[in-house]
């Protein structure tokens, strides 16, 4: 894996909010508004982070009537995050 890949990972996951956003759409299609409400974040911040994740091909965006919903491109991303969380919490 080249250094660009590590830099992208560091940029996308530099704080817990991006990780929480990803895990909130782990097994469901979810709108940005629903994510903002769930995580007590402002809609603009959620939309910006989702756009970054979409540009990195980590999430998909789909129009469902008047609603835009997001899903993970590959659930293994969240599997890896949850696995790391579990390994840390078992110390």
CATH superfamily: Winged helix-like DNA-binding domain superfamily/Winged helix DNA-binding domain
| N-end to C-end Cα span | 28 Å
Helical content band: 55-70%
Q: pLDDT average, as an integer?
A: 89
Percentage beta strand? 15-25%
Principal-axes geometry comes out as globular
CATH C-level: Mainly Alpha
Output the structural class.
Answer: alpha+beta
Count of DSSP-assigned helices = 5
Give, in order, the helices and strands.
HHEHHEEH
> Do you know the CATH architecture?
Orthogonal Bundle
Tell me the CATH topology: Arc Repressor Mutant, subunit A
Question: What features would you describe in this structure?
Answer:
The protein is 59% helix and 15% strand. The chain has 91 residues and is an alpha+beta fold. It has one domain (3-89): Winged helix-like DNA-binding domain superfamily/Winged helix DNA-binding domain (Arc Repressor Mutant, subunit A, Orthogonal Bundle), CATH 1.10.10. The chain has a 3-stranded antiparallel sheet with strand order 1-3-2. It is globular and about 45 Å long. The model has no long low-confidence stretch (mean pLDDT 89).
Put the structure in a nutshell.
59% of the residues lie in helices and 15% in strands. The chain has five helices and three strands; from the N terminus they run ααβααββα.
Which key features would you list for this structure?
91 residues; alpha+beta; Arc Repressor Mutant, subunit A; globular
Write the layout of secondary structure elements.
Layout: H1 3-12, H2 16-24, E1 30-31, H3 32-39, H4 43-55, E2 59-64, E3 67-72, H5 76-89
Antiparallel strand pairs: 1-3, 2-3
Helix pairs in contact: 3-4
